[in-house]
Amino acid sequence: MSLTSQLSNFNSVVRRFMHTHFPNVTKMVRAINKEPHYIRPILPPEGVEFQDGGYALSKNPRRYWAYVLGDIGTALDYRIRFNFPEMNIKETIAYRDSLSRENRVKSRAHRKYRFRFIGTDFFNEVEEFLARTRPDRGSLIPEDEDVLCRYCYTMGLIDYGYRNSSPHQNMEWFDIDVNELISRPAQWISDDIAAQNTLFRKSKRDWLSKPATLNPTFTGGVDVGGADADLIVDGCLIDLKSSQKNLTGRHLYQLIGYCLLDYEDEHGIDSLAIYRTRYGVTHCWAVEEMLALSMDFPQPLNELRAKFRKVFQDELQLLEEFKTTPDKFSFLASSNGRKFLEHESRVRLLASTESNKFLKSPEGRQWLISDNGKFFMATIPGKRFLSSGNGRDFLTSPSGRKWLSTDEGRYYLTGRKGREFLNSGKGRVFLASAAGREWLSTTAGRKWLECDKGRLFLTLAVGRNWLTTKFGRKWLVTRAGKIWLTSPDGQVFLISKNGCKWLETADAIDWLASAGARRFLTSINCHKWLVTEAGQNWLDTQGGRSWLASYRSWAFLGNKHGEQWLETIAGRAWIYTDDAKDWLFSVSAWDFLITPAGREWLISDEGKIFLAGTKGHEFLEYGKGRLFLTRAEGREWLTTEDGRKWLSSDKSQTFLKLAVGREWLDTAAGKAWQASTQQE
Known about the structure:
Elements (H helix, E strand, L loop, with lengths): L2 H6 L4 H9 L3 H10 L30 H17 L11 H6 L3 E5 L5 E5 L3 H14 L8 H23 L13 H6 L3 H17 L8 E3 L6 H4 L6 E3 L2 E6 L7 H13 L9 E6 L4 E6 H8 L6 H24 L3 H6 L1 H6 L3 H7 L5 H5 L1 H7 L2 H7 L2 H8 L1 H8 L1 H7 L2 H7 L2 H7 L2 H8 L1 H7 L2 H7 L2 H8 L1 H7 L2 H7 L2 H7 L2 H7 L2 H7 L2 H7 L5 H4 L2 H7 L2 H7 L2 H8 L4 H4 L2 H7 L2 H7 L5 H4 L5 H4 L2 H7 L2 H8 L1 H8 L1 H7 L2 H7 L2 H8 L4 H5 L1 H7 L2 H12 L1
Parallel strand pairs: 5-6
Antiparallel strand pairs: 1-2, 3-4, 4-5, 6-7
Helix pairs in contact: 4-7, 4-9, 7-9, 20-21, 21-22, 21-25, 25-26, 25-29, 45-46, 46-47
């Protein structure tokens, strides 16, 4: 990780050091950005961001616009250095990297392949061109300037491969002829580089006559993973910026960082500067002035360099202590362990395969629920560890369940990785525990139950068991729970052993009396439940009796499950109540009326009233009624006054013509009725 990369990472020790010791940098940058520019800036032509720009992979040119501007900035660094007589092409990063003919790298699609740079032939041609044109002696003619800018652009692409350990996205360039190579960039790219270089020569001509160090490196560069600046001219460290955007605090941090990394004052830096190549503007400070403006309490440069160096020495010491100590638990639980975890690269080391042995151990799991362990799990490597097999094993362990019960653990469960854990088999093991049941009662848990994976969990045995707990019962009476109960999965649960157990509770009785339960009460699953002991107990409640008195119960009373209940003592008793009258006088009760309990009711006082009325006559006209008349109860009714009146009416003629009617006429009661009618 280079200096610029560490400054981009807010958790790195370099960025934290800068932020702590130089708190006023932001104010300085705001003041710089407010300064007016008295010349018109050099900008790319309008509309070029929609052009290819010479990129072989630019299927979406807008996406690569930032790459193009970055490549122009790198190419301009090379072009400006060629203005100095100290420039030696064989000391450039691009040349050193080209000496390695074959490097193993990964492409954007992560496929390994042989990546060949142009090699020294390209640089020999550039060296011959420089010897002929001598750009350090003055401006070149337009044709030569165009060629040199194209050379610089190509060297910038090779420079990219060196700094990023991977080929440039325009990797097709590296396997073609040199002449074709330098003709690839669009003309506006070469013109843009040339225009900025011309502005540099006009505005900073005095720099060209002063001693300069090009692309300097620093003693402390090894500590940060690499640091090389653009220029040092007569003791002034200069950073070239080709961006047209405003400066940021990171740009000043970068300048200060280069100065601090010169531990031994090898370059004799006495001032710092930023040169904006598109504006021709230089922002320059003496080192003492920079420290006075950027710090609340300025310190000598030597002391700051010593402190900066100690930061990396402490880091190396912590890394060595972590790798060599056998008792990692004691180390990570100490104050040094907390310091160790404050850097992402060290955290990645803890989450590596080698260190997973510690995290899998009982001591490691115990450490994970400590303050330092919670700090580790909040980092990106820590979250990756939780998503691994070892991490999920930890989450299902007693220590892991304890952590998931904390605020940090509950916050983890609300994220994408947490939901993936809940959807796995080990997540269901956690949900079956006391901590998991408690989590399901939280707002996040109830929200998860509403998603597809949550509803799938409720159909499993572990989910049905949870629904019978106090947390599950509370959820079932919520709006989401009531909606789920009306779904097919909810109805299957209600007739299960766990569901029947819940239906015996006071909450279930209240729910069954509500409008939300109507769909369930009309389902065949409910009808199966109503003939169970729990269902019969509910029918004896006020809510059950109210439901039986409504027309919504007729579907149940008219099927085999209803007939089974009506044969019970409670069902027979209900038949003789006023609530049953509306149903018994309806067509849906005809199947019941031919059952033993129904025939018994028909010869009762209420039944005789029914048979004597219009509804009863309609019943007797059809097959169900005729079947009743063939039974002992029906024949007994025919001997009553109401029965004789019916026999004398036109409604009975169809019955008397049938075989069952003629059979009845042959009985003593039938003959007696015939004799009485003849006498009349």
